[in-house]
């Protein structure tokens, strides 16, 4: 009986993976044929998905510690520690030796990065679409340090609202596992301009994107947000480098992570504001 259950479980997973792959192919073919959905439509779909607290898949996508995917090892904690180590290496490389007194974490999720970075800060601002996620992040920060946490809930359609609610300058702008979820590559320019406006002169940003290898299956999907959210927006490395420069930031380095325990094709950009 146990063997039969295991076989059925394997078959079920295989069928689901095949169905997901087939759906992705169909959506990409439609996009390639010109049937892209508008940025406003995708922004509305994104807002509906992230603002509506859901089940375990939603919690996993939001990087809540309580999500099932983080049950069996220290992956949740390692997310933040790995990014903190990356930020430290980058700071040494560019001679960024000022204190990280004020930090903005754009798309803070359930706090996997905040618990690593907040103890180094005097003020920590978490930005997210979900009020429930912000509450979870605040609790995680409070469990590890006394750094004051400010949670800012935004609407996908109006990320610039943050600029009316907090006062620059900030020392460090963090953004992990967000750019692949945004409605379009063009929307990314809005976030980069926000980062530039929030940072003080000489401030730094560590921003992660998903990069495209040039194949049709790794290009921006631009359709059916809910079923393909982690592939919605991708960039080539030179494309994002040039976009950041056009938005007033100076790129210094990029680190590629072809695959890790969460997904694949990650690129981490270290940037500063002149």
Automatic annotation (TrEMBL):
The lineage of its organism: Bacteria, Bacillati, Actinomycetota, Actinomycetes, Pseudonocardiales. This is Methyltransferase type 12 domain-containing protein. It comes from Amycolatopsis camponoti. It holds the Pfam family Methyltransf_12. Residues 105-203 form the Methyltransferase type domain. SUPFAM superfamilies: S-adenosyl-L-methionine-dependent methyltransferases (SSF53335). It comes from the Bacteria.
